[in-house]
Amino acid sequence: MAVKLIIVLAVLLGGLALVTQYRAARNEARAEAAYPLEGQMLDVDGTSVHAVVMGDGPDVVLIHGSSGSTRDMTFALAPALAQNYRVIVLDRPGLGWTTRLNSDGASITEQAALLSAAAAQLGADSPIVVGQSYGGAVALAWAVNHSDQLSALVTLAAASHPWNTPLDTLYRVNSSTLGSILAVPLITAFVSPDRVESAVNGVFTPQNAPDGYSDHFGPSMTLRRHSLRENALQRANLLDEIRALSPLYPQITIPTEVLHGTADDTVSLKIHSEPLAQRVPGAVLTRLAGIGHMPHHVALPDVTAAIDRAASRAGLR
User: Fold this and answer.
1) Which superfamily does CATH assign the domain made up of 33-313 to?
2) What is the phi/psi pair of residue 60, to 5°?
3) What's the predicted TM-score (pTM) here?
4) Is the bond preceding residue 206 a cis peptide, omega within 30 degrees?
5) Cβ–Cβ contacts within 10 Å for residue 13, how many?
6) pLDDT digits over 164-197, tens only?
């Protein structure tokens, strides 16, 4: 009887595994068909990097945050800037359409090297670099490690300094070996994009996501297996990377604008942007009263004004 039960259980588990892999692959194919490339693919030392380019003028590079893609930036900020700048929006490794750099989770230093090389390939040798949230950490790594490859820096609700809160349970599970094997395919196969859309809307608190944002952004792209794994590993590794990077901020000498909402409960103004502005020589901190974690959508004029100031300070306007 015990042997029969084991055989039945094995058959059921095998069937669940097959169904899970089938549904995961189907959902990924549907997501990629619904949200195709917005721009062009670059080959950067063997890594495929997705870049969207629009507008004309001084070069501005936009770097999205966790679980994001170029679509977060092309909804509002990139079109607004394209009236006065040549805007380059890049997918970070493993997210959107850019391939993964490795299986360990690309570090912010590795990402900065990749994206600066991609920008240079497009002729942007010294752009203004704008990074939001996790993308702000990548922008800071760019400024520290490639100081001759940007003219100014703008951070939006950027993660910049060590924090004490524990890693989110989902990231902790998905970044583990067992979670990567078992949990990630189940999420891709069975979690509805509506659940992700609800989480996306929560990031805008206390504001609401703009009308049409989720349809443009494509929450289902975040649920692909390789994106879930890469995003979780990047988040799991970020704290140690920030600990190593933050002592180097006084080396940043380019014009720097730091923007952060006072109501941001995702990345704390007091933990991150306030000490960042104190440590970067000449940095200008703009506190956005009542604004949450997504200023590039809900405080767009303030963000474009900061980029204009950075351009003027860098002698580009």
Assistant:
1) Alpha/Beta hydrolase fold, catalytic domain (3.40.50.1820)
2) -130, 130
3) 0.95
4) yes
5) 10
6) 999 999 999 999 999 999 999 999 999 987 777 7
